[in-house]
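Quick start: read one record
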Amino acid sequence: MDNNNEKNSKTKKKRRKKSGNKFFKFFKILLLIIIMLVVIGGGIVVGAVLSILKDVPDIDPANVNASLDQTSTIYDSNGELIEKIQAPEFRTVVDLDIMPNHLQEAFISIEDERFKDHFGVDPKGIVSSAIDNVKAGSIVRGASTITQQLVRNVYLNMDKSWDRKIKEAYLAVQMDRALTKDQILEAYLNRINLGQGAYGVQEAAQTYFSKDVEDLTIAESALFAGIVKSPSRYSPYQTIRPEDFDASNHQEVGQLNILGEKYFAVYNDESVKRQRIILDKMLSLEKISQAQYEQALSEDIKANLKPGDKKIQDISSYFNDFVKTQVEEALMKQFGYTKEEAQNEIFTGGLKIYSTIDLDLQRQLEDVYNNFTEILAGDPSSFRGPFLIDWRLSNAGNILDNQGGILYYKQENLLNDNLQLVIEKGTYEFRESDLFIKNSKLAPYAKHIDIADYYRLDENKNLVTHTVGSIILPEDKFSVGENKEIRISVDFLSENKDFYTIDGNENMIIDSRYFYRSVDGVVQPQSATVILDYRTGEIAALVGGRDIEGSRILNRATASQRQPGSVMKPIGAYLPALDSGFTAASPIDDVPFYSNGKLWPNNWYRGYRGIYSLRKSVEQSGNVNSVKVVDKVGVQNVLPYLEKLGIIDNSDPENDSFVTAQENRSHNDENLSALGLGGMTQGLTPLEVTAAFGAIANDGVYIAPRAFTKIEDKKGNLLIDNTPKENIVVSPQVAYIMKDILRTTVTSGIAGRANLNNMAVGGKTGTTQKQADIWFVGFTPYYATGVWIGNDSPTITLSQGSSKAAELWKYIMTKVHEDLENKPSFDKPDGIVSLNICSQSGKLPSSLCSQDPRGSTIRNEIFAQGTEPKERCDAHVSVTIDSSNGSIANEFCPPSVVQTRVFVETSPRYIPSENNGIVPSDYGFRKPLSVCSYHGVDTVIPPEDEDPEENGEFEEENGESNENGQEVPEEDEEDYDYYFPFFPSDEDEETEGESSE
C-alpha cells in the first residue's frame, strides 16, 4: 500500500515537473514576443516622433521675449502696410519683479503647482490628469504646464493634433533648458488672455480695477488666475448693450465706452466661484496663511471692480473690420479654433494679413460718403424736409409709424435743454408717497421701463435718430398696473433724491443719470456700397454706412440683410430661365396672374402691358412676368442656382440669408415672392447681391467674395492660402445673354441713370414696398458694384425711388473708372449667334410681322448657339374684321365695313371677361374673340355709297344703341393706350411694391 502511494506520488511529481517545463517555455516565448513587439513598436514610435520633431524651431530666449511685442498687421493689395493691430493697446509688459509674489503663486498653484521643480513637462501631472479624467469619464483637467502653454503661444498654434502635443512637450523641455523659470513665468504672465481685451496681468489690472499690477491684493490675484481657464466665462464683468440691460438681473459695476458706443459692465459671480477654488489651492499648498485666506475670502470683489476704458481709437475702416472678421472665420474653420482662440491669434499672434483693399478706391468711396448729401441733393438749405425721407408727422412734430403710433419723438418733445426726460404735468401724481406715472413716452415691462427714442435734423437736414435706453430701477422698487400705470416706491425716491425734480411748469424732470441715451445718434437714411473685382472675388473697397467718422459697429455692407426687391429678378428668375429653355426673345404675356386663387402681384406701373419678350420684361422690371417665369421654371429648380450664386449657404445654415423649408416650413423663401420679387424673409446683404451679379459678369462663374488673399505667421510662413473656390453657375453663353439684357436695361430700360459714357454697364434697380429700400447693382468690364440706400428702421420710408441709388452708383463708378481704359462693350464668348426675330412670338419673322399696326415687330436678338428659333412667327395673323364693331366679319357684313388687318393671336387666348374685365394695353392688337353678331340675313344693309350715320340708322357713340336697340361697342382705336402702350423712360420710378405673397 505504501509502495503504491510512493509510486503514485513520484508519477505526479514527474507530471507536474513536465507541465511546469512546458509553462516555463511558453512564458519565455511570450515574453520574447512581447519584448520584440515593444522594440519594434518603440522603434516605430521613435521614428514617428523624430519625423515630427525634425522641423521644430530652436528655442531662442531673445525671441521668446521679443514675441510679446509682435503685433498682427494688415497690408493692402500692393503689399503696403495699412494697419497695425497694436498689441500695446491691449497689453502692457512689466517685469516679473514688479508682479506681487502672491500673484505669481496664484497662477502657479492652479496652472502648474510643480512649475519650479519639473523640467518643462510634468509626468506626475500627466498621470494625475489621466486618472482624474478616467474617473470623470470626460476631460475635466489638462496636464499642460505653464512652460507648455507658453511654447504653444510662442511657437505653435491651438491645433488639437498629436503632432502639436508632441512638439509642445519637446519644445517645453528645450525651453526649460534655455530659459530660467523666472523668464518663463514673466513671458507667460505678460502674454495670457485675461478677458475683455486684456492681455497680460498689467493690462488686466487696469481693465478690471483701474490699478497697476503691483497693487493687486491676494483676492484679486486669485481672481486673475481663475480667468485663464475660460476668459469669456470667468471674466469678473461682462459687457451688455444698454437695450439688453436688466436692472433686476444684472448688477452694474460701471459703464464703458467701446468704439464710441456705451456699454454696461455687469458683475459676473462665476469669476468669484472660480476664485475660491484658486484660494483653496493656494492654502493647501501653503502659499498663503489661514489668516490671508480668510481675508481674501471676505474681500468684496464686486465693490473693488472699477472698469477702465481701452485706450484705442477707431482708426480702422469698415474694410479692415471686415478683414478681421473673415480672418477670424478662416482661423476657426481651418484650425478648429474657438472664437476666443481666433481673436487671441489675431491680436497677439503677429499675423501678416494680406488684404484685397485698393486704397485709392477705398479713399474715393469714403470721400463720396463724406459728401453723401451734397452729391445726391446739392444745397441742403433748399430742402423743405429731411433729406430723402418720406415721413409722417403728428401735429406735435413726432414721426409716426404706419399705424399712427409714435416711432420717434421730436427731441424737444422728449427731453429738455439739459437732455433730461420730461414727464408732463397731468401724466404723473403722488399717492401715499409713491409716484405713479402714465405717459406715452414710457413703455413699462415687468422688469424694466423703456423710454421712447427721438430724432433731430442736423445742419445738412439729415434725419438723425437717437436710441434711448431703459430707466434703471431695482425690481422691488417699482411695479406696473393693469392699465400700464407705473408705480415707483417711496423707498426708491427717498434713497435717490436726485431721481427727479419739478420744473416751473410743474413737469417732472427725470435726471439723465438714470437712463442711457445715444449721444451722437445715427444719421438716416443709411447706405452701403461694395466694389468687387468679380474675376478674382477680391473686394476692392466697401463702406458699411454713412457718417463713417463715428461708430462702425454695424457694417451694413456685409452684415445688414435687407429685402433686395427687383435686383433679385435677374438671379432668382431670369438667369435660371435662360439656362432652362427660355431665350432673350421668349414672349411672356403680362396679363393678370393668380396665386392661390388671388390676383397677384401688381406691377409697379399701372395695369398690364401684354406681350413682352424676356429682355423687355427685365428692362421694364414687370412684376407679373418675373413671377410667371419663376412659376414656369419651378421654385425647386431655381434653388440650385441660388446655391451656386452664394445666396443659399448649405455649408453654414445658421449664417444663411435664405430661409429654406427645412429651416422653417411655415414661412420660408421658397416661394414666388422671394424668388421673383425679392420679398425675402430676412433679405440679402449688399455684398451677397453684388457677388451674385459678379457671377453674371464673370461669364457664369461665381467666386466667393474675399477680403484677404493670405495669412502668414510671425515668421513669414504661409498659414492660410485664401484662394477662392469657383462655382460654374451657367455657361459663358447664357451668362453673356443675361449680361447683355442687363446692359440694355441701362441703355433702353428704366435704369438709364446708371449709364456711363463710353463704358459698358449692366445692372438692375430694386425698390421694396413703400420705398423702404432702394438698390442699384451693376457691373462694368472692370468691377461689380452694389449700392443700397434705406433707413435702419424700414418703417421710415424714402421720398425717392431706385433712380437715386442708380445716381449714386453712377457717381461712384465715374470716379472709379477715371483712369481706366474705355470699354464700350463686354467681351463676347464663342457660340453666340445674332438674328432677326419677331418680338411677339420670339420666332423668325414672317411677312406679317412688319405689318403690325404698331409698326414692325422685327428685332435683332442674340442666342446661345443651338437655342435660336427655327420656325416662323405664327403669332401674327391676318384677320378680316367688321370695322364697325371690331369683331371678326361674317358673310353678311357689308363690304364697306369689312377690312383685313394684322393681329396677334396668343395661346392661350386672354379673355377679359374671365378676369373681371381687365384688359392689357396691347389688347386692341390681339385677334378678336368673337364673330360679328350684328349683321345677319335679316339685317338692313344700306347702299355702299350711303353713309349710315347720315341716314340716321345708327349712332357710333360709345354706349349708344342703334334703331334696333342693339349696343354698338366702342372702336378699339379710340383707346389710345391700346395703340401706344406707355413705356417709361429712366425718369420714371420703379416701385415693385411686392414683398410677400
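The chain has 28 helices and 41 strands.
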